[in-house]
Specification:
This protein is α+β, with helices and mostly antiparallel strands. The chain has two helices and four strands; from the N terminus they run E-E-E-H-E-H. The strands form two sheets. The protein has a two-stranded antiparallel sheet. Strands 3-4 form a two-stranded parallel sheet. The protein starts with a strand and ends in a 9-residue tail after the last helix.
Length: 69
């Protein structure tokens, strides 16, 4: 059994460089151009990957915040 996992040919685990994941939340507002800019910033910052988050505040947000976007 190995003490690492491999993602796209890159070893992750003890003795290997950190694998840093940037989170791109709903701050992109569904704008693909902004998504690309956020990815570029993550790459410039040295991140290994990005994780996207998508949700619909009208469905999952608290009642007192609905309609106040």
């Amino acid at each position: 059994m190995t003490d690492y996992i491999e993602v796209d040919g890159r070893r992750i685990g003890p003795g290997h460089p950190c694998f840093i994941i940037a989170e791109i939340g709903i701050n992109h507002n569904g704008d693909l151009g902004l998504v690309r800019q956020l990815i570029d910033v993550a790459v410039s910052a040295g991140c290994s990957a990005v994780k996207f988050q998508k949700r619909t505040p009208e469905i999952c947000g608290p009642e007192h915040q609905k309609g106040h976007r």
